[in-house]
Amino acid sequence: MASSFLVVTVALLVPTFIIVFHSLWMAFVEALWLTPRRIKRVLERQGIKCLPFRILIGNLPELAALCEEAKSQPLSCIKHDYAAYAIPYYYRWIEEYGDNFAFWQGSQARFFLTNPDDVKEVLYSRSPHISRPKRRPDGVKLIDNGLLQIEGERWSFHRRTLNPGFLPEKLKSMIPIMSRCTMEMIERWSTKNVKKHEIDVFTELKPLSADIIARTAFGSSYAEARQIFELQQEQLLLEGKIQSRPFIPGVRFIPTAFNRHCWRVEKRIEELTLRIIEKRTQRRKLDQHEDAQDDDLLGLMIDAMEDRGVERKTMSMGMADIIGESKTFFAAGQETTSTCISWTLMLLAAHPEWQERVREEVRTACDAVGFPTSDSLHRLKLLSMVLNESLRLYPPLPIMLRMSKKDVRVGKTLVPKGTVMMLPIIAFHHDQRYWGPDANEFRPDRFRDGSSKASQSKSSVFLPFSSGPQFCIGQPFALQQAKIVISAILLRYRIIISPQYRHSPIFAFILQPEFGIPLLFESI
Ligand code: HEM
């Protein structure tokens, strides 16, 4: 009896094992060998040069070597023509292979779109076959279920739900919170009680941006959200490590120390986000009535979950969506904005004549407490020009990515299914063909008549917030915050580049100052 049971079990298990093993093996061969071979064939047939493909590692070693080589020759002074330092592989490979080339990030094909018309075509495309790339299966779950990862009808619904959170009236109501958070930071600085002191603005402004996002969008204080931000920073570091190594299917399920750490961080973020959301739903129940503080992003999303408001018949948001969007807004809104403000302060410190001009403008625009008002914010023309020039020279998101889910035509190229298209915004922003011979100089004047007239190109080559339907939803929020923070600082301090400052913009998801931005703050 027992032996026949064993025979039956073995007879069932062996074929199952063979089928599972065979499917895994085929998926492995497809992802790591057949797909890259096909992409290479399609691209090369069109005369596009593909860098040599090696299984698993692709061109990761060359890429790392080029970055190392660039870093071994540090920039000697504050030069704005640093693009070849931040993304050396792009410029080196263009030199070697011409404008049309593809390389291999592990087994994934990456193809730079070097023509602004092609970039525009992709950004405005309504094709369901072009999307933002999904995270690597073994990547960290930083922004799952949020606008940056979802598609189609679901994306449209989320975007429509969240848009009211960024309307002019709503932004206006955020000015007092943004000013209060900034004041608290400045008060902390002033306890140092010395005429001149050094501040690394890159480090100091991160928690400020986090605080502002937490309070304006989620009604919670930074103290509560602090852990989420810190854990997201850690996730970015973990993602960096994952990206620099080859993708091996299945390895992500093995409970290695690294994987277990990733899982713990993910779980903790979800728990903390859920806690913020639950606190709000509890408060709603207790209050019974809609209070004025409830129409922030979190309030809008809870409305969509609870089926309130218009247009909720066919779609609604679930808890996973709210967690996803909350994580996305924390991740997308914090570091981009603080980095933009940090680079702008560096530029103003490096160009004292502009610092003086902007300070004069700010003086006339601020109220008695030293902050711009909702009316005067729009009159800060010089500051807007400086911010645009800063976003041009130091775009926080220097490269955007899109994925072809089927063979798609972009301009003259047939981009094969499974290729990641790289949109090198930073290269467009520094290109003399579009900006003239002074492309790498700080010249805010070029934005005097607005951003559309600033370049000499017919196509749009100024894309710090992207363009098309998926452009940055947080653009007005970020610019308002930048104006408030910079105005408040300039009114109180003269800023000077510290002797400790080392100019080293590097590309690690965003364009970061590798050694921070230490500036000397002199009280006025
Ligand atoms: C200076 C600061 C900022 C810059 C330079 C910036 C830049 C960008 C860019 C280039 C994109 C498009 C990315 C892509 O298509 O791959 C984007 C999308 C997005 N940004 Fe920003 N961003 C900034 C601030 C913010 C802020 C403050 C928030 C939130 C409060 C935010 C939330 C988002 C979201 C949710 C998306 C996805 C939009 C969609 O798909 O509908 N960003 N941002």
TrEMBL record:
Residues annotated as transmembrane: 6-35
Keyword Metal-binding in annotation: yes
Gene3D superfamilies: Cytochrome P450 (1.10.630.10)
The organism's place on the tree of life at top rank: Eukaryota
Residues holding heme: 472
GO molecular function: heme binding; iron ion binding; monooxygenase activity; oxidoreductase activity, acting on paired donors, with incorporation or reduction of molecular oxygen
Compartments (UniProt record): Membrane
Keywords: Heme, Iron, Membrane, Metal-binding, Monooxygenase, Oxidoreductase, Transmembrane, Transmembrane helix
Protein name: Cytochrome P450
Record organism: Ceratopteris richardii
